[in-house]
Write a structure and sequence with these properties.
The chain is an alpha+beta fold and about 210 residues long. It has helices at about 10-25, 40-45, 85-100, 105-115; strands spanning about 35, 55-60, 70-80, 120-125, 125, 130, 135, 140-150, 155-160, 165-180.
Length: about 210
């Protein structure tokens, strides 16, 4: 598959970057990411993975209020869940580590661009029940990062069991552009990723 398949998104690269950096900075063993789950307290108690902490996330596409369409602005809403001993401390250390990594505006962008340039991400999507190994290069150039703490945080939750959970949530906002995968164009910020179709007339036109 080409690098510009729809599974190659900027969120994928940010999650991989944080997944490598946070365990050492926050002192946790693992840092897995999942699309937004759980949606209920029962889901949380029944599906919590093994380990210290895990993250669910929402990708939020922002309205582009600028006249230039190729610089995008997005937000990621992260929910952090911790379990075991001192869960509140784990979530506080995790959010503080992310704040220090990604709230340095263009300096954070420069660091993550450098990190991405030396790595590929291996995906294993399935086609007709068979895993297809796909190695992806980064096709995004990040401009700025900002970190927001939401007005409310999740309190420690005691379910009356042997496990105590803590949660927290933050927003990461970032600007980026998608680079050209055409060697003739180089790293063009205005690359549209499409080519006009050949002009058809009369009976040659496609009926749909």
């Amino acid at each position: 598959m080409a690098n510009d398949i729809v599974l190659n998104t900027p969120v994928l690269w940010i999650n991989k970057y944080l997944g490598e950096k946070i365990p050492d900075l926050a002192g946790v063993e693992d840092f897995p990411f999942f699309p937004t789950l759980p949606s209920t307290i029962d889901d949380l108690t029944e599906t919590f993975p093994n380990g210290d902490i895990f993250v669910t996330y929402d990708r939020m596409l922002k309205m582009n209020r600028k006249s230039f369409p190729h610089i995008k602005c997005e937000q990621i809403l992260y929910y952090f869940y911790a379990v075991g001993s001192q869960p509140a401390i784990k979530t506080l250390k995790t959010t503080e580590a992310i704040f220090r990594l990604l709230d340095r505006f263009d300096e954070s962008a420069e660091e993550i661009n450098s990190w991405c340039s030396n790595r590929r991400i291996r995906l294993t999507p399935q086609k007709d029940g068979v895993e297809q190994i796909t190695d992806l290069d980064n096709i995004f150039y990040f401009h700025n990062f900002r970190v927001y703490q939401l007005e409310e945080t999740r309190d420690i939750i005691d379910f009356g069991t042997a496990r105590t959970y803590a949660g927290n949530k933050i927003i990461i906002e970032f600007d980026y552009h998608q680079t050209s995968q055409d060697p003739a164009n180089g790293d063009s910020v205005t690359y549209a990723g499409w080519k006009p179709e050949a002009k058809l007339t009369g009976d040659d036109k496609i009926t749909i």
